[in-house]
Amino acid sequence: MISRLSVYGKVTNFQRVVGAIRWRSSIKQAPLLTAAPVRALVDEQITIKGHFLPPHCPVTVCARMHSDDGDLWESFAHYNTNKNGSVSLTNDHSVGGSYLGCEPMGLFWSMQPAPGGREGLRLRKKDVETPYTVNISILEGHVSPSEGQIPELAVVTTERWYMSPGVRRTEIRQNGVVGTLFLPPGPGPFPAMLDLWGMGGGLPEYRSSLFASRGYASLALAYVGHKDLPGPPNQVNVGDSYFKAAVHLLQGHSQVAADRVGIIGLSFGCYLTLRIATNTGVKPSCLVCINGPVGSTMSLTHPDGRTELFDNFRKYWSYDEQGYVLFKEVSLPVNLPPESIVKLEKLNCPLMYIVGEDDLSASSIENADMIEKTLKAAGKSHLFTRLSYPGAGHLIEPPYSPNSRSSMWTVKPKKLITLWGGHPAAHAVAQEDAWRKILDFMESNLRQ
Asked: Which end of the chain is more exposed for a tag (fewer CB within 10 A), N or C?
């Protein structure tokens, strides 16, 4: 009988031989590109790595995706592999392309419309129930995707989502209120946010869907430029009673904690946020304002805040050498009719105001100064938190979103492109930091 020890020794010797054969094999592992996780929310980082590449060689990592309108967006960055033939976007530095330095999410925030695309594009998610599908590839050498057909060494596809599994989306057309309600998974009751955008109009949902993915009920509210709202699309035809009804709708929902509702506003939505909190009898738990005014240059023709046509503030427009319009001076406090400025001294809840110091669309620094001064005079400095970001523009959005320094504002009666401001890397830093601090601010004031 052959002993177990003898058999084990023979097996061990065989494994050593096989291992030696493998080690000496001339078979070469194909290049591999990985992304982890492959599916993630847009505000989450992913880790991108290249493996089994030639050591100490130049490579280019590219990202391409189509917007919901079918426009191609892309970015690329130049890297050099290490001695093991690997490259990591988390640890290694880009030496050229769409961004420079160690930027783990640079491929995403540096995306721009592909050459030859439509003029004045801005990337905004229209269908939050579908992801952005991003194709990431690695190419040999330091090249540009626009140079033509370049063989791909390896490819990986990632999905970037605005809604986590279980988030519920419901269109709201109730008591005249036009919006979309997002609820997190589970029975609740949840703290909630009323979500207001700017004069671009319509009904952007992507910030609200992310709030719900982070555990907050959120109502994205339309107030201008939507087919289900009354009156001309270029005119605000709703007033204080409309916004009050929206807050009450949120508070009255069975899955919302009525005493834990906040409001967030960007641009003109900032003015509305402040106005709701000081002029309607509504008592929000906290406010977040991003690059917006404390008043309105539009003539108030109704006691409830409805406005006339936007042409009234054209005298404050200015233009750059390309003919792009800057709205910055429209919101200078000295240009705001005194009767339109909100009664900031009446504010009774915490307020976070976010400033992009390269904002070309609103005088956000001056408005922040006015808020801070007024609250200090009223003995309410403790309510005010100010975040200020050098190099950031007007459109401070969820992290890793590409910044459009300019984009199309109107097509009719004539084409008009507006300047938002912001430098890509600095704006990306602002978006990432501001988003984290917004969520922390909401956590402190809506959950505790």
From this structure: N
